[in-house]
Amino acid sequence: MLVLAFDTATPAVTAALHDGERVLAESTTIDARRHGELLVPTVERVLREAGATLREVSAIVAGSGPGPYTGLRVGLMTAQGLATTLGVPAYGVCTLDAVAYGSGRAEPFLVATDARRKEVFWARYTDMRTRRDGPFVDRPADVPVEGLPVVGAGADLYPDILGKSDAPPYPYAGALAALAAERLAEGTPLDPPRPIYLRRPDAVVPGAPKRVTA
């Protein structure tokens, strides 16, 4: 097994290669505006550092969000394109699940990431592997924290409401790859690489031009 995983649903453009037992290489750049520019070089970097080639990859995994429309689709379209070219399966894993897995927590907690517009994407977890409910999008004050710890960049943005996070803020690809490899080894079905959208894109189709009269 050689799993190539990457995520572009947050400001972290992150990729990793996993051999079924450990992360062979991982690279992350924090830049919310250059997902399309940075993803392919990041993938090339982890392959080079691991001493592997794309042809050796047996599965592609992309973070499926939730996240901003433009950044999210970069990773998912890249996953679909690579899978088609290589003739290997492509899967999608909820980005919040990757944050949860990276936290290493064994007790109930919440994950919250930045949804912009003064909102957060969030989900509730029983432990690092088990999502209890979600994902949702809400204003921080409407998230039912109920005394649970909150991990992720959403907590860092709104510490007075959600509490300060003590876990990595982003869904680093090493955690994403390890989670996917674990599920594949167990025979747990993974979702196809389809985006998790919790609201409509900002862009809209322009209306018909106004009629000009003399």
Automatic annotation (TrEMBL):
Keyword match Transferase: yes
Top-level taxon of the source organism: Bacteria
Coiled-coil region(s): none
InterPro entries referenced in this protein's UniProt entry, alphabetically: ATPase_NBD, Gcp-like_dom, T6A_TsaB
EC number of this enzyme: 2.3.1.234
Keywords: Acyltransferase, Transferase
Annotated Gcp-like domain residues: 31-140
SUPFAM superfamilies reported in the protein's UniProt record: Actin-like ATPase domain
GO molecular function: tRNA N(6)-L-threonylcarbamoyladenine synthase activity
Ranges annotated as spanning the membrane: none
PANTHER family noted in UniProt: TRNA N6-ADENOSINE THREONYLCARBAMOYLTRANSFERASE, TRNA THREONYLCARBAMOYLADENOSINE BIOSYNTHESIS PROTEIN TSAB
Protein name as annotated: tRNA (Adenosine(37)-N6)-threonylcarbamoyltransferase complex dimerization subunit type 1 TsaB
Source organism of this protein record: Nonomuraea purpurea
Record gene name: tsaB
